[in-house]
Amino acid sequence: MQRQGFSQTQVCWKSKKNKRTATATKARGIKKDDGSFVHSGEVLVTQLGLSYYPGENVELTRNNSLCAMCDGKVIFSSEKLSPYPDSPLYQPVKNGVVIHKNFVHVLPIPTHGKFRLVSEI
């Protein structure tokens, strides 16, 4: 038996009135694969926190993204961490704990001699 003045569609509509739209997900992760060629300034990894640490020719931006500092080939590696003395990880490493972290490196392309001396011209 239905009540007067209400229909089924009105009740369903009212229950969905205060739903919020979901925010878009962040596209975090590895942007360039191991062995790929990158140009200076390209983003290699976007991350929340430090899952990957910057290595040779890689800079850490304010939002923890890793960017290439020069043109070259991307290399991912897992290396033994050797922290600075002011780091909180320094004391455990000094006591013998081995900590391995993931690093991202950019190996620059070798520059070939494409110039001549003035005396040879």
Terminal residue distance: 103 Å
Name the CATH superfamily assignment of the domain at 26-109: RNA polymerase II/Efflux pump adaptor protein, barrel-sandwich hybrid domain
Poorly predicted regions: none
CATH third-tier fold name of the domain at 26-109: OB fold (Dihydrolipoamide Acetyltransferase, E2P)
Any idea of the CATH class of the domain at 26-109? Mainly Beta
Quote the average pLDDT: 85
Strand ordering within the main sheet: 1-3-6-5
Compute the number of helices.
2
* Shape by Cα distribution: flat
Helical content (DSSP H or I, runs of 4+): 10-25%
Structural class comes to mainly beta
Radius of gyration: 27 Å
Under the CATH scheme, the architecture of the domain at 26-109 is Beta Barrel
Could you give the count of β-strands?
8
Main pleated-sheet profile: 4 strands, antiparallel
Determine the strand fraction and express it as a percent band. Answer: 25-35%
Order of helices and strands: HEEEEEEEHE
